[in-house]
């Protein structure tokens, strides 16, 4: 059956009215104060958890969040990298916006954390609204490497181990903090009790893999640095058994006590100084997540807990592999997610598709922005 001209005219009239209403609504929204929009998001998140900043026996001054971040595509950074004798290895320094979703995850799933610190080499993430880094009791601060290194002559460094031995030097850092690499994010609500015990100790999570791994130490710098750290622990707590084993700390969203980190540096000052001078990873670096975990347990400040509460995925150019990661996260609903970069930039098309697919998934997983983000243009 055909449609009469009169009917088409009526349809066009209705469409015009709808477009006019939508346009007027858009203009009204443009006049809305952006903070009122953020305010609703913040209230919704806080109301969901209904918690103030956390203070307990383990963390009397509350819990903060700290990220290490670098934009590996920044020309200034790339130049500094090459001037210090390193080319390639883009994956270790690549940025594909996982930091944005990592911050979102803490904001949405751990709203009792009020202070955010991003440790960078003078870089600022593009998604941040630098004029809005404070909102009510939520604050975000960019921390330059120069602030946390006792000797700026050691800079620049491109070694996460050198940065990790220095993060406790962040000014005004709380007694406890959640420490994340930019490829780590929370996957669901995280209660402080996951880390903080009623007796004042903290939980140190592992999955049963013990150090030292002697054979792996021969070929892998990370395993060697863990072995180096285990040796320090044994020299202090097990002087008669240099091969005493301690569990590898799970590669997840780490939980550190600031006082413990400072105490560790006092005991191993030379090793800390040495690690800070290493611009790139070496086998005799300190492995702080492992060292902090073992030291906490040996000094009766922590308890080992064998539990796999995280999901680790190596994101690469392969669509099947990445869909497996996405489906695994959906199925297991882990509290912490680590999306390690295994992308191959020699195949730019598939790499770009992989990044887009993972970004879309993260947007679906954590759609609610943090109050520190730039708002989308209307």
From TrEMBL:
Stealth protein CR4 conserved region domain sequence ranges: 328-376
Occurrences of domain Stealth protein CR2 conserved region (ranges): 92-202
InterPro entries: Stealth (IPR047141), Stealth_CR1 (IPR031358), Stealth_CR2 (IPR021520), Stealth_CR3 (IPR031357), Stealth_CR4 (IPR031356)
Residue ranges occupied by any Stealth protein CR3 conserved region domain in the UniProt entry: 250-298
Every Stealth protein CR1 conserved region domain range: 63-87
GO annotation, cellular component aspect: Golgi apparatus
Gene Ontology terms for molecular function: UDP-N-acetylglucosamine-lysosomal-enzyme N-acetylglucosaminephosphotransferase activity
Pfam family, one: Stealth_CR1
GO terms (BP aspect): carbohydrate phosphorylation; N-glycan processing to lysosome
Keyword tRNA processing carried by entry: no
Alphabetical keyword list: Transferase
UniProt record similarity statement: Belongs to the stealth family.
Protein name: Glycosyltransferase
